TrEMBL record:
GO cellular component, one term: fungal-type cell wall
Chain coiled-coil ranges: none
Top-level taxon of origin: Eukaryota
Name of the protein this chain belongs to: Cell wall mannoprotein 1
Main location: secreted
Gene Ontology terms for molecular function: lipid binding
Family: Belongs to the cell wall mannoprotein 1 family.
Xref: InterPro entries: Cell_wall_mannoprotein_1 (IPR021054)
Keywords of the record: Cell wall, Lipid-binding, Secreted, Signal
Residues making up the signal peptide according to the UniProt record: 1-16
Subcellular location as annotated: Secreted, Cell wall
Length: 182
C-alpha cells in the first residue's frame, strides 16, 4: 500500500479545518464600534471632498475622483459594519446603548454631507456627473438602511426604538438629496 493513498483522506480533512479560531460573537460589539468611528472619519472626508468640488475644467477629474473615492470608502465601511452586526450575537444592554449612541453621533455628519451634496448640485450637473451622484446616493441610502436593520436585530428593544427614530431622520435627509438630483 502506498503511503500517499493512506494520507490522502487526512489532507482533505486538514483543508476543511479553519486556520484561525472563530471569534466569539460577543466580542463583535467593540469591533462594530470601531468601524462606526472609522465611518465618522470617512463621512467627514466625503464632506470635505464634496465641498472642494467646484466643477472647474481642470478640477473635474481630480476632484471627481476624490468624491468618488470618499464615497466608495464610506460605502465599504457601511457594508463591513453591516456584516459585523449580522455576525454578532445580541448585544448586552451596555453594549447596545453604546452602539446606538455611537451611531447617533453619525446623524449630524451624514446630514452635513448630504447638505453639501445638495449645495453642489449645480456643479455636478454642469459636469454631467449628477447621475453618478444620484446612483451613489441611492446605494448609500440602501446600505445605511441595511446597517440600521442589522444593528436593530442585536440591540435591546428600548434602543431599537431610538434606531427607528434615527433612521427616519436619515431617510428624510437622503430623500431630500435624492430629490434634488432626480
Amino acid at each position: 500500500m502506498h503511503y500517499s493513498l493512506f494520507l490522502l483522506p487526512f489532507i482533505a480533512i486538514s483543508q476543511a479545518i479553519p486556520l484561525a479560531p472563530r471569534q466569539d460573537s460577543q466580542a463583535l460589539a467593540p469591533q462594530l464600534l470601531e468601524q462606526i468611528r472609522s465611518l465618522n472619519t470617512a463621512v467627514t472626508q466625503l464632506t470635505t471632498a464634496v465641498n472642494n468640488y467646484d466643477g472647474s475644467l481642470f478640477g473635474v477629474l481630480p476632484q471627481g475622483i476624490a468624491v468618488i473615492s470618499a464615497e466608495k470608502k464610506v460605502d465599504s465601511l457601511v457594508s463591513k459594519a453591516t456584516e459585523t452586526a449580522q455576525d454578532s450575537s445580541k448585544f448586552t444592554a451596555p453594549d447596545s446603548k453604546e452602539v446606538v449612541q455611537t451611531l447617533a453621533t453619525q446623524i449630524g455628519p451624514i446630514k452635513d454631507s448630504l447638505s453639501a451634496l445638495k449645495t453642489k448640485y449645480p456643479a455636478f450637473k454642469r459636469t454631467f456627473t449628477a447621475p453618478i451622484v444620484l446612483k451613489d446616493l441611492k446605494t448609500l441610502k440602501e446600505h445605511t438602511g441595511e446597517l440600521i436593520a442589522a444593528v436593530k436585530e442585536k440591540v435591546t428593544a428600548e434602543d431599537a426604538g431610538l434606531l427607528d427614530f434615527g433612521k427616519g431622520i436619515l431617510d428624510q435627509a437622503f430623500d431630500d438629496a435624492i430629490g434634488v438630483y432626480s
